[in-house]
Design brief:
With 670 residues, the protein is α/β, with parallel strands linked by helices. It is built from 25 helices and 20 strands.
C-alpha cells in the first residue's frame, strides 16, 4: 500500500516538529486513501493549528473593543470561547441565564461574524451529543450551555460518552443566585431559585470530567475558560464543566483578551529511545505478532502510519476492539476487522502491541497465552478512571499514538539489523499466508448477505446494500449495538473518519452525534480543510438506542437548522443486548428460555418511527407513497422490511439528502 505522507528521519526533528512528517514511504500495495476527497487532517494538533488561524479574527475583535465600554462576565464568557476557537454553542437555557441571554443577543447584533453560532437544543442529551459528534470530526471542543443542577443531570449518559470516548467538550451551567433579597444584580427573583441549589453541583459530573471549575469573578473569566479548554484538549481528551452564579455573570468588567498562544494544550508525548528499540525488536522477531487498537484512528493521520508498520512486518495482524474510529483500513490484508474484544486472534499471539486501547480482550473468554510479550502505548495506559482494569503488560508508556508510530516506523526503516532480518524469506511466506487468510475471511463475509428482492432485512444485507449504493465519501455514524460488528464486516470502512462509533456505552448518543458530525463536515468544507463535498452522513441506530435519547428533539434540531442526514432505524422490536448478556452468565437459565415480554426487553407493539420523524419535523406523511408530497416537507419517513423496498428507499434518500438537502428516516422492520 502506498503511503501518502512522510515520517521524520531523525529523533531531533521529530521532537521539534511532532506534527509534520518528512521523507517518503515506499511500500507496495494499492493506496487505500488516494481516491478520497478528504485531506488527512491532524486531529491531535488541530487546537495548535487553530491558534495560528484565529489571530486576525481576534485582532478584529480587539479593535472593536477600542471604546473600552464595560461588558458583563457572561459576554466575556462567549468572547473567551470564540477567541479560543470554539465556534458553536449547543444551548438549553433556563432561569439562571438572564445575563447569558443578554450576551447572546448583544453578540449576535454587534458582532455577528465574530460570535459563536447558537444551536437551540430542546433536550440536553441532544446538545452534548451534537458537541460530541462535532468534536469527533474537528478535533476541537465545542460548547454546551445548560441550566443549574437539573440541566446538568439531563446531560445524563452524554457525559459518560464524552469521557469514555475521549472527546473534548466544554460544558457551562449556571448556579442558583447566592443572594436572595436584591443585594446584587442577578439576585433571586423566582420560586425555583431555592429549589435548584444543589450542595455541590459540580459533583454531579466531576468523576467523568477532566476538569471542573467555577467562575467566581468576571476578572478572571477568560483564564477559567482557557484552563478548562486546555484540560479538554489535552490527552486523554474529555469533557470539562464550568459553573457561575447569576450575580457573577451580571458583573460588569473591563474588556480584555488573553494571548491564545500561551493557552494551548499539552503537546504530544514521545516514547523513550529504549522503548522504541524494545517494541520494534519484539514485533520483528515475533512469530505471531498482533496489534490491538481502539481509539488511535481519532487522529486521522494515524491509520496511514499503522499501515506503514504493518507493511514493514509481513504477517502481522491488526485487530480493532473499540470500533469508535477507522484505526486501520479494512481493505488491508493485515486487518482482523472489528470485534468487541471477543476475537480469538489474541489466543495464539506471541507478541501483542496495544495502541490506544481500553479493553484488548475479555480475560475469562480469550486471554493471550501466558508466555506472550505485551507492550502498551496509550494516552492513558493505566485506565485511571476505570477502578478494575488488570490487563498485564511487560511495558507501558504514556505517549501520543501518532508520535509513537512515527518513531517505530522510522526506527525499523533505519535499523540495519532489523531491516536485514525482515529480508528473510520466512517473512515473505508469512505475508503470503496472511493474505490468504484475509482473502478467506472476506469471502466468508461476502457469502452472508441474502439479496433476493423478497428477502427479509438483516445487518448483513443492509450493510452490503449501503456499501454498494452510497457514495464512497459517506460517513457512517453507528450505534447499532448487537448489529454493529456485522455492519462493520459488510461496510469494511477504510477511509479515515468514514466510520464513527461512540466508544462509550450510553445509548442514544448517535441521535445528536450524527448531526454534530454533519455540521463539522460542512464547516470543514467552508474552511477548505478538504476538497470536494462533505459527503452524506448515514446514521444507523437500533430502535432501543433511538428511543433512549430524545429522538424528537434531535429530529427537530435537524429540521430547524437544515442538517440533512439519512437515519436508518433498525427496528427489531426491543433490546437484544440484555438477553445476550444474560446468556453469557446463565446459558441454561430461566432468561434463556423466557419470552421477550417476560424479561422486559420487548418494545412490541413497536412505535412507528417513520411517522415520529415526520411529526417531530412538522411534516405530514403517507405510508404507501414513496414519492414526494406536494408540500415538499423537509423530513420524510419510510418503513420497509424487504431488500427490494430498502433499495428503493435508498434511491429516494440519495436524491433527497444529496440533491435537495432534506432529511430522511428509513425504518427497517426486522
Amino acid at each position: 500500500m502506498a503511503i501518502f505522507g512522510s515520517v521524520s528521519r531523525s529523533s531531533s526533528r521529530m521532537a521539534t516538529n511532532a506534527f509534520r512528517l518528512s521523507g517518503q514511504y515506499h511500500v507496495k500495495h494499492t493506496p487505500v486513501f488516494a481516491s478520497s476527497p478528504y485531506r488527512i487532517s491532524s486531529f491531535t494538533s488541530s487546537i495548535h493549528q487553530r491558534m495560528l488561524t484565529i489571530g486576525p479574527k481576534r485582532a478584529d475583535m480587539e479593535s472593536s473593543q477600542g471604546t473600552k465600554e464595560q461588558y458583563t462576565t457572561a459576554f466575556a464568557l462567549f468572547e473567551a470561547l470564540w477567541e479560543a476557537g470554539i465556534t458553536t454553542c449547543f444551548v438549553n437555557v433556563g432561569s439562571d441565564h438572564p445575563s447569558i441571554l443578554e450576551a447572546i443577543a448583544k453578540g449576535k447584533r454587534e458582532r455577528p461574524h465574530l460570535w459563536p453560532k447558537m444551536i437551540t437544543c430542546p433536550s440536553e442529551i441532544t446538545a452534548i451529543s451534537m458537541a460530541d459528534g462535532y468534536a469527533r470530526v474537528s478535533g476541537r471542543p465545542q460548547a454546551v450551555i445548560v441550566h443549574v443542577d437539573v440541566g446538568t443531570q439531563a446531560l445524563g449518559q452524554g457525559v459518560h460518552n464524552a469521557s469514555i470516548g475521549r472527546v473534548p467538550v466544554f460544558i457551562f451551567a449556571g448556579l442558583c443566585p447566592y443572594t436572595e433579597s436584591g443585594e446584587l444584580l442577578g439576585s433571586r427573583t423566582e420560586y425555583m431559585h431555592w429549589l435548584q441549589e444543589a450542595p455541590d453541583q459540580k459533583a454531579i459530573v466531576r468523576q467523568y470530567c477532566r476538569y471542573t471549575g467555577e467562575i467566581r469573578t468576571g476578572l478572571n473569566v477568560k483564564q477559567t475558560v482557557g484552563r478548562a479548554i486546555q484540560f479538554a484538549s489535552s490527552t486523554p481528551k474529555g469533557p470539562v464543566y464550568i459553573v457561575a452564579a447569576r450575580e457573577v455573570l451580571a458583573q460588569e468588567i473591563e474588556p480584555y483578551s488573553l494571548k491564545q498562544e500561551q493557552w494551548i494544550p499539552i503537546g504530544p508525548a514521545a516514547l523513550p529511545a529504549d522503548a522504541v528499540q524494545q517494541i520494534c525488536a519484539a514485533l520483528v522477531h515475533a512469530e505471531r505478532p498482533l496489534i490491538i487498537t481502539g481509539y488511535s484512528g481519532r487522529d486521522r493521520r494515524t491509520p496511514e502510519l499503522l499501515v506503514a508498520l504493518a507493511d514493514l512486518i509481513p504477517g502481522i495482524r491488526v485487530h480493532d476492539t473499540g470500533g469508535s474510529d477507522v484505526c486501520f483500513p479494512s481493505s488491508h490484508p493485515a486487518s482482523e476487522g472489528f470485534r468487541l474484544s471477543f476475537d480469538k486472534c489474541t489466543e495464539d499471539a506471541d507478541t501483542i502491541f496495544l495502541l490506544d486501547c481500553d479493553v484488548p480482550w475479555i480475560p475469562s473468554k480469550n486471554p493471550p497465552h501466558e508466555s506472550a510479550k505485551i507492550f502498551h502505548v496509550d494516552s492513558d495506559p493505566l485506565n485511571q478512571q476505570i477502578p478494575v482494569s488488570f490487563f498485564p503488560a511487560h511495558g507501558r508508556w504514556k505517549a501520543d499514538s501518532f508520535t509513537a508510530l512515527s518513531q517505530l516506523v522510522d526506527h525499523i526503516e533505519n535499523d540495519e539489523v532489523l531491516t536485514e532480518t525482515l529480508r528473510n524469506t520466512t517473512y515473505t511466506q508469512r505475508g503470503d499466508s496472511r493474505a490468504e487468510a484475509y482473502k478467506a475471511r472476506i469471502a466468508d463475509i461476502a457469502a452472508r448477505p441474502q439479496l433476493g428482492d423478497d428477502m427479509a432485512l438483516d445487518a448483513h444485507n443492509i450493510g452490503y446494500l449501503l456499501k454498494e449504493s452510497l457514495p464512497t465519501s459517506t460517513t457512517f455514524v453507528i450505534e447499532a449495538v448487537t448489529a454493529a460488528q456485522a455492519l462493520h464486516d459488510q461496510l469494511q470502512p477504510s477511509r479515515p473518519g468514514s466510520w464513527i462509533n461512540c466508544g462509550g456505552t450510553g445509548i442514544g448518543w448517535s441521535n445528536g452525534a450524527a448531526l454534530g458530525v454533519k455540521m463539522a463536515l460542512d464547516d470543514k468544507m467552508q474552511e477548505r480543510e478538504f476538497e470536494g463535498s462533505p459527503g452524506l452522513v448515514c446514521h444507523i441506530v437500533g430502535d432501543g438506542s433511538f428511543m433512549c435519547a430524545a429522538p424528537s428533539s434531535a429530529i427537530w434540531v435537524a429540521m430547524k437548522y437544515k442538517i440533512p442526514i439519512l437515519t436508518i432505524v433498525l427496528n427489531n422490536g426491543g433490546w437484544k443486548a440484555p438477553r445476550n448478556s444474560a446468556m453469557l452468565v446463565y446459558p441454561d437459565g430461566y432468561s434463556a428460555k423466557a419470552s421477550e415480554d417476560e424479561i422486559n426487553i420487548s418494545f412490541r407493539p413497536t412505535p412507528n418511527y417513520a411517522a415520529l420523524a415526520e411529526a417531530a419535523a412538522g411534516s405530514g406523511r403517507d405510508d404507501e407513497n414513496m414519492a414526494e408530497s406536494p408540500g415538499g416537507e423537509w423530513m420524510k419517513g419510510v418503513r420497509t422490511r424487504t431488500v427490494k423496498g430498502f433499495k428503493e428507499a435508498i434511491r429516494v434518500a440519495k436524491s433527497r439528502i444529496i440533491s435537495q438537502r432534506k432529511g430522511m428516516l428509513l425504518e427497517v422492520l426486522m
